[in-house]
Design goal:
This protein has five helices and five strands, in the order E-H-E-H-E-H-E-H-E-H. By secondary structure, the protein is α/β, with parallel strands linked by helices. Helix 1 links the parallel strand 1 and strand 2.
């Protein structure tokens, strides 16, 4: 039995958080761990949860208000020691350069494509498992 991974999902929009949960399912990829989701609606909640520890991957909504996931990602990469991998949700493919600027480990576009999201999240979870 594989361990359970904790995935933090940040968006001010509950529908976006739900799309991420539903698209990922309990096990995003067959050879990966089951996931538990921790939802956050504010940047402050994200930073608080990261301080507590135990987060394996973050999924951040680049379109969130008042602070987008890309700015929050950059802050996490600058301020959180050994931060978990971050997957950023972009509003459009042309925003890929912003995802690079934010130092995101991966990015997918909105609306969430279940196959793309699950595959990308699965690769980040594999990377976490290999580094453990």
């Amino acid at each position: 039995m594989q361990p359970t991974a904790t995935v933090l999902v940040y968006s001010d929009d509950s529908t976006t958080r739900e799309q991420v949960r539903l698209a990922s399912g309990r096990r995003p990829v067959p050879d990966g761990p089951e996931v538990e989701f921790l939802e956050c609606a504010t940047p402050e909640a994200v930073l608080r949860e990261l301080d507590r520890g135990g987060i394996d991957v973050c999924v951040l909504d680049g379109e969130a208000v008042p602070m987008g996931g890309m700015g929050l990602c950059r802050q996490i990469k600058d301020e959180v020691f050994q931060s978990p991998p971050v997957l950023v949700l972009m509003g459009r493919p042309q925003d890929a350069w912003l995802a690079t600027w934010s130092r995101a480990d991966a990015a997918v576009t909105l609306p969430v494509d279940p196959v793309d999201l699950a595959t990308t999240l699965g690769s980040l979870l594999r990377r976490v498992a290999l580094s453990a």
